[in-house]
Write a structure and sequence with these properties.
Blueprint (H helix, E strand, L loop, with lengths): L4 H30 L23 H8 L54 H6 L5 H85 L9 H18 L11 E9 L3 E11 L3 H13 L15 E7 L4
Antiparallel strand pairs: 1-2, 1-3
Helix pairs in contact: 5-6
Length: about 325
């Protein structure tokens, strides 16, 4: 049973009352002894006169010799002893719940943040539970504590597994990110190597074309400049017909195209070369437009036809 404030107050009041009662009895005993007056004998004081027995007459001496022996003095009984006042019996202390021989709780029960809906005065008025009821309450509490401990361990184990799963997932994502980073780096290196090869091939093609143009004069087996200009204009119009200019590509922006084709205008490949003012979306769109425009113009332009053609494309609307 839990000790309440009312029980503590009652015990203090009883202890104070008992001490006051003992003090009053002690004072009464002292006053009773002081107020008991000594009894004095009444009458006149006794006077005596010493007389020599040999000086008395014969008759007086005979009378004195025949006098009876005095009776032995009466022994007064001793005064009755004061009866010691025994203190009133003190109430036995109420056994506390902490004194019960129960095993200690393995772990403290979690605090339940809920107000106590039971009135403490009503609990005080209730009869004290018997030892059997108290034992049952302790056993039920121990069972509940064991259940709480098991549930807490289960939750801790679930939380540990969740953290391990999150850690494993984070490591997996980190590995995937590293793989993607390495793959992108390899792709960038491959694109750079391909662009270098294209630049080398374009430079060689331009050098060969310039050398051939310089070796053969116009009209005598060389290229006709006017026909070449009209051929490039026809190619530009054919590509513009199949190209949708992105908004990121401004009008008038130039980009060099390297077109590899077969006689008849069939396109084998179309790639953007430097210099090119287009962004990535513009470059992909112009390459797709060249493939859509095949077969490219060929009839009438056989003298200026080239398998590897370099076209300086200018962005215009259709």
């Amino acid at each position: 049973m839990r000790e309440t404030r009312a029980d503590t107050t009652l015990a203090v009041v009883l202890a104070i009352g008992l001490h006051l009662l003992l003090l009053v009895l002690l004072l009464l005993g002292v006053f009773w002894q002081r107020n008991n007056p000594q009894v004095q004998a009444m009458g006149s004081p006794i006077s005596a006169e010493l007389v020599d027995a040999n000086a008395l007459s014969q008759a007086m001496q005979r009378t004195l010799s025949e006098r009876p022996e005095p009776a032995p003095p009466e022994v007064e009984p001793p005064p009755p002893a004061e009866e010691e006042t025994a203190p009133p019996p003190q109430p036995l202390p109420t056994p506390l719940v902490e004194d019960a021989p129960t095993p200690p709780q393995p772990e403290a029960q979690e605090f339940i943040p809920e107000p106590d809906a039971v009135d403490q005065d009503e609990v005080t008025d209730q009869p004290t539970p018997t030892p059997t009821d108290e034992t049952q309450v302790q056993e039920a509490k121990q069972r509940q504590d064991q259940i709480d401990l098991t549930e807490r361990k289960r939750q801790e184990e679930a939380e540990r597994k969740r953290r391990l799963a999150e850690q494993a997932e984070a490591e997996r994502q980190a590995k995937l990110a590293e793989i993607r980073r390495q793959r992108e780096a390899l792709q960038r290196e491959a694109r750079l190597a391909e662009q270098k090869l294209k630049q080398i091939a374009d430079a060689q093609a331009r050098t060969a074309s310039d050398t051939a143009a310089a070796a053969a004069p116009a009209g005598q087996g060389g290229q006709d400049t006017d026909l070449l200009a009209r051929y490039q204009a026809a190619l530009t119009q054919a590509i513009l017909a199949k190209w949708t200019r992105p908004e990121t590509v401004p009008l008038g922006a130039r980009c060099r195209l390297v077109i590899r084709q077969l006689p008849g205008g069939e396109v084998m490949s179309a790639e953007v070369s430097s210099p090119c003012a287009y962004d990535e979306q513009g470059r992909r769109s112009i390459e797709a437009a060249v493939l859509k425009a095949q077969p490219l113009p060929f009839a009438g332009f056989e003298p200026v036809f080239q398998r590897t053609l370099i076209l300086n494309f200018e962005a215009r609307d259709r």
